[in-house]
Design brief:
Elements: E1 5-9, E2 22-25, E3 35-39, E4 45-54, H1 71-75, E5 79-83, E6 87-88, E7 93-100, E8 106-114, E9 117-125
Parallel strand pairs: 1-3
Antiparallel strand pairs: 1-2, 3-4, 4-5, 4-6, 7-8, 8-9
């Protein structure tokens, strides 16, 4: 399991402005590198696997600049994500999904799926996002 999965929520949630947003979850079997999940309007859980394509050197961020001599910077932007076709899952289990509400707090929902179909979605908590560390100035 990777760091977290991305979940596009099209299903009606309590706060309408959250519909269509990308949520995150650490409870699903694939991570954001592998692809993106979608909870459809009718509650189906879909997964779209990612593939990757090489980006031509001339289209990379440091091409033609002095930084291009640095091999690490030369590799920046060398791949682009190509989302695959969404396909139904047969996932059964309960996952927490969360996103920024837009006011500095998290919106967290607990979603229960049976054979890839949403059976329950409830708001479980609203907690403040951790404060950002102050930047040091010189």
């Amino acid at each position: 399991m990777g760091m977290y999965s991305e979940v596009l929520v099209l299903y009606p949630v309590t706060r309408k402005k959250l519909r269509g947003k990308i949520f995150q979850s650490k409870d699903l079997p694939e991570d954001f590198v592998a692809g993106t999940y979608t909870i459809t309007e009718d509650g189906r859980l879909l997964f779209a696997p990612n593939s990757y394509e090489d980006v031509p050197e001339k289209e990379r961020p440091f091409y033609g600049r002095p930084e291009w001599k640095n091999p690490l910077l030369r590799a920046c932007g060398c791949l682009k994500v190509v989302p695959g076709r969404r396909r139904p899952t047969r996932f059964t289990g309960t996952v927490d999904i969360y996103t920024d509400r837009g006011d500095g707090a998290l919106a967290t929902y607990r979603a229960t799926f049976v054979d890839g179909k949403l059976s329950r979605l409830v708001s479980v908590r609203r907690e403040a996002m951790p404060p950002r560390k102050p930047r040091r100035t010189r």
